Amino acid sequence: MSARASPALRYLASRLATTVLIVLGAMVVLFVLTLLVKGDPASVLLGPQATPEVIADFHRRMGLDRPVHERLALFLWNVVQGDLGRDVVSGRPVLDRVLEVLPYTVTLTAVAIGLAVAIGVPLGCYAATHPGTRGDQWLAVASVSVIAIPNFVIAIYLLLVFSIWLNWLPVLGTGSGGWGDSLVRLILPSTALALSWVGYIARLMRTSLLDVLGEPFIRTSRAFGLTERTIVYKYALRNACIPTIAILGLGVGRLLGGAIFVEIIFARPGVGKLIYDAIGTRNYPVVQGSVLVVVVLFVLVNLAVDMSYAWIDPRLRAGQARDRADA
Amino acid sequence: MTAAIVPVADGVAAKVWASATGRIGVVLVALVLAMAVLAPLIAPANPNAIDVSNRFAEPGLAAPMGTDHLGRDLLSRVLHGAQIAMVVALAVIALSLTIGTALGIAAAYAPARTERLFLIVFDVISSFPSLVLALAMVAILGPSLGNVISIVSITFIPHFGRVARAQVLTLKTAPFLEASRAIGVSRLRLVLVHIVPNIMGPLVVLASMDVPVVITIEASLSFLGVGVRPPLASWGTLLYDGYSYLTQSFWPVLFAGLALSVATLGFTLFGEALRDAVDPKQRQVP
Amino acid sequence: MTLLVDVRDLSIEFATARGAVHALNRVSLEVAKGRIIGIVGESGSGKSTLALALSRLLPANARIAAGDIVFDGVALGTQPERVLAALRGARIATVFQDPMTALNPLFTIGTHLGDVIRRRRPALAAGEVRARAIAMLTRVGIPDAARRLRQHPHEFSGGMRQRILIAMALLAEPDLLVADEPTTALDVTIERQIVDLFRTLKNDFAGSIVFVSHSLGTVAELCDEVVVMYAGTVVEQGPVARVFGRPCHPYTQALIRCETEEPGTGRRLRSIPGEVPDLVTPPPGCPFAPRCAEATPTCRQAPPPWRPQADGGAAACVLA
Q1: d(C-alpha A201, C-alpha A124), whole Å
Q2: Are A270 and A259 in contact (CB under 8 A)?
Q3: Which CATH architecture has domain C3-91+174-316?
Q4: How many H helices and E strands in chain C?
Q5: Which residues 6+ apart lie within 8 Å of A53 measured at CB?
């Protein structure tokens, strides 16, 4: 890369390189797993339900008689071409099965994130602008609780209270009705998924915002008589978003893991349910392929989060913040 | 220098007890540990004793938490679940802390190429959402207590490895270390006697904050059916059983969920109070 | 001359873990309209505290223990934050010491300036706001102002950032401009440029200026009157010519000696023996007594008398 290439581009390039390395590493790990399975990899991997044709196909494609490094290369080559193996039960390509349920998972996760931000950010701002008050203390307690308690416990409790005891919301599945029905059936699962994130985000916003409000540049804004509303919501909030997004990015993994449970508990189709059912039926190619897709998604989201800093923080767009010597 | 830890410990304990959240955390943790340790002694019945005639009993004198879908006493199952949770948590933390620290120290002293290799491996492992990785591995390798412990440990090794390495790097140039080297102290002795005690602080705090995460992962894996196997029953298993029969009785779900919540909440509060007492500046993830 | 600011017997304390720090001890100050007052002293003398107290911009742990600040007839000590915020950015503007941290890194200069202008003149159209910003940037010596409006603080050097902050202060069209050591954080050559800028601007500026500095030379160059502070009290004040020409207080005399001993650097050498007193437990009597070559026993026991001088100003010393 030439010395005159924009620092932002250079940063993007290095992040992409790291990302590719990580995905490669993931694929290697998954491949190594197949080696660790005892006995004939084919029959154990494909499970007791595999037909002789599938086993033979597997042997041929996997080149099980070939040396390990050749098998690894073949595996990687297959994956890059989009061939994640075949579903043991139906014979369909794994990639197809994953892609057909992916939209459900993405919808659920997107709605949950939207909810979490819409509720968590204002709560965090309130706590930061009213530190030490009763509201702040209650929020702190509630936040710790939803963060600490596993989200599938929260999901089951929600199911218990709202569907079974109160009978307010329909219980399971995505329903066959129109938009309205789908939306209603989305409420509980997305809330269950969002709740621990509300706690996370509220605490993060509170801490970041409090830190920012103590910075010298906020004193400048105060010194010029800008309204508290302008200071907090126009200026400080944007500064506080940076560390918030940074740490949110680290927690994306948890969100993805949480989606699996919510899908299972609320019997919704999605990648999580796919993995879970595949484990139950020993449909290991599906497990392997779906996990790989999840990992790639996860890594891409992290990359996107990293890129978003550059958009928010102009210092990163220009590379290292350097002070020029001229007056 | 090794003695540096002891006076710190005194002040820390007092500070943890002084904060409200710390106190609640300590109480809850004590409760869970008591349940785990005393389970065989105070459980009213054999947790695996099936009594089909007594399914879904309401909480009462005979069964203070009721019974599950096979008539097994829930209180006993919950108490033994505490044992599983604690055994797994302690085993995983002990394993990953030891191995991770060792690798982290090795990485800090290794030549640049090797160090980069360590870091890449750490990165790859920690780039997986840990639950998904554990899930895939346990599913393929087969569920068992041993597998769960080993695999979850692996996912935590990079965590400790990175922090250990960072700590060693800041410590490496300390004058007292150079002085020891100058008088001919061997590297191994240097590491064991001088470095390890001085980096333990942040690592111990990190470990205590990881306990609830491990408990959650173990419960999650058991919930999904790839954790511990019968006759062992983890809280996750209890939750799944309860969920399956939710419409017939909600008591199993209620109590198993409560136990899990108490454990995770208690250890989280305790871990945070500990972190704040040791070094409030360490707060990086709220 | 009417008084814009009348500080009467002001005492300010900071609550700290070690106890209350008495940052200001019965300080009085008068700023008439259109005058330029310099405040000099070493670190810890309370000069910044005094300057920031004028618009009540002190940190949360500061407390007015006694006395008051009267701004254009209104006593500020008991006013709610609402009233004070109305004064700031419209009647009082402040230039802070460290230009590197005083601007929000995520926002353009245009946004910073625009918000100040709009706060002062809410009815202005966007084009007019922009025109004023460009005009003021040019006036403080930032070339190519129109393009610079779109840039962020990190794209400017320290000296330029301070010019921007001065521009912001002037755009607020205040009656009082408070400059809290505006050149302390800058290199010597840049310091010279900023002082020159102040010199050019002060002639067109209709309001009063309070200029805090540790440099006697700068104050002598820019100000009409000077206030010398030590350990939270005013030890001497008066017209610049009188105080520097015929200093009455031993501390002022020592300061001047220090500065003239190092010609050309503008920096004072710490060559007054002894140390600044602990402000948590201030000593009785004159705070400078422990270091004063001419101290008498009474100096250490009783607070020094305030002696007005025939040729202007006053000094807090038995010898004045």
Answers
A1: 7
A2: yes
A3: 3-Layer(aba) Sandwich (3.40)
A4: 11, 12
A5: none
Residues A166, A123 within the same domain: yes
Which residues on adjacent β-strands are paired with residue B122?
none
**Locate tokens 């919704």: which residue?**
A268
- Number of compact structural domains in chain A: 2
When scoring A149, A209, A287 by the number of chain B Cβ atoms within 10 A, the one with the most, hence best to mutate, is A149
Domain that includes residue A221, residue range: 98-326
Please provide the DSSP assignment of A275-291 as one string.
Answer: HHHHHHTT-HHHHHHHH
Is A129 in the same domain as A74?
no
Contact A221 C104 (CB under 8 A): yes
Q: Is residue A138 part of a domain?
A: yes
Contact of chains B and A by CB distance (3 or more pairs under 8 angstroms): yes
Return the pLDDT at B4: 44
Burial (CB count within 10 angstroms: exposed 0-12, middle 13-18, buried 19+), residue B99 = middle
Q: Who among A144, A156, A203 is closest to B269 (CB)?
A: A144
pLDDT at B286 over 80: no
CB-CB neighbors (< 8 A) of B265 in chain A: 144-145, 148-149
For chain C, give every domain's residue range: 3-91+174-316, 107-173
Does residue A2 lie within any of the structural domains? no
Give kind and range of the element (H or E) at residue B76: helix B74-109
Q: Which of A237-251, B11-25, B83-97 has the highest mean pLDDT?
A: B83-97
CATH of the domain at A141: 1.10.3720.10
Nearest by CB to residue B220, choosing from A156, A247, A261, is: A261
> Residue C96 is nearest to which of A220, A230, A238, comparing CB atoms?
A220
Are C236 and C206 in contact, with CB atoms under 8 Å apart?
A: no
Q: Judge C/A contact: 3 or more CB pairs < 8 A.
A: yes
Please indicate, yes or no, if residue A93 is contained in any of the structural domains: no
Ranking A194-208, B123-137, C172-186 by mean pLDDT, the lowest is B123-137
- Tell whether A127 is within 8 A of chain B (Cβ): no
User: Considering all CA atoms of chain C, what is the largest pairwise distance in Å, rounded to the nearest integer?
Assistant: 67
Q: How confident is the model at residue C51, as a pLDDT?
A: 92
Mark whether A64 and A143 lie in a shared domain.
no
- Which of B220, B235, B262 should one mutate to test binding to chain A, selecting the residue with the greatest count of A CBs within 10 A? B220
Q: Which amino acid is at C114?
A: G
B198 token code pair: 């001085």
Tell me, yes or no, whether A172 and A250 share the same domain. Answer: yes
pTM: 0.80
Same domain, A201 and A233: yes
Write the pLDDT tens digit of every residue in A221-265: 999 999 999 999 999 999 998 888 877 777 766 777 788 888 888
The minimal CB distance from A150 to the residues B121, B219, B243 is found for B219
- ipTM, 2 dp: 0.87
Residue B138, both tokens: 């346990």
Q: pLDDT of chain A along its 327 residues, tens only?
A: 445 556 667 777 877 887 787 778 777 777 777 666 655 656 656 666 767 777 777 776 656 666 677 777 777 777 777 777 777 667 788 888 888 998 888 888 888 988 998 999 999 999 999 998 988 988 998 999 998 999 899 999 988 888 877 777 666 665 555 666 777 788 888 999 899 889 889 988 999 999 999 999 999 999 999 999 999 999 999 999 888 887 777 776 677 778 888 888 888 888 888 888 887 777 777 887 888 888 788 778 877 877 777 677 777 665 543 333 333
A104 and A167 in a single domain? The answer is yes
Contact A284, A45 (CB under 8 A): yes
Concatenated DSSP letters for C114-165?
Answer: HHHHHHH-TT--HHHHHHHHHHHHHHTT-SSHHHHTTS-GGGS-HHHHHHHH
Cβ separation of B129 and A295 shorter than 8 Å? yes
User: Residue A41 has what pLDDT?
Assistant: 57
